[in-house]
Amino acid sequence: MYPAIQTSAGWKKLELYDGAKKLMELTKGPAEFTIQDLQPGYHAFSVLGTDGNGDVRPSNPVLVVVRKRLASSDPAK
Predict the structure, then answer these.
(1) Distance (Å, whole) CA 52 – CA 54
(2) Structural domain boundaries of the chain?
(3) Nearest Cα to 30, choosing from 55, 5, 53?
(4) Does pTM top 0.70 for this prediction?
(5) Which Gene3D superfamilies does this UniProt record tie to the protein (predicted)?
């Protein structure tokens, strides 16, 4: 679990990207991003944070691999 971004840290806006595609934007903290229904393949998530001075800082990307889900007759799997 990653620590939440507190508004006291000075962030005014956080933008979540998957590669070059912007997925969502948060302007109130604490920040938590939840992604659902990802397509199989590689995803490179990163965040751009904008502080109170308008300075923008990128995060390091996090690489996620989503594999194709196999059909199962057992709903517990």
Answers:
(1) 5
(2) 7-66
(3) 5
(4) yes
(5) Immunoglobulins
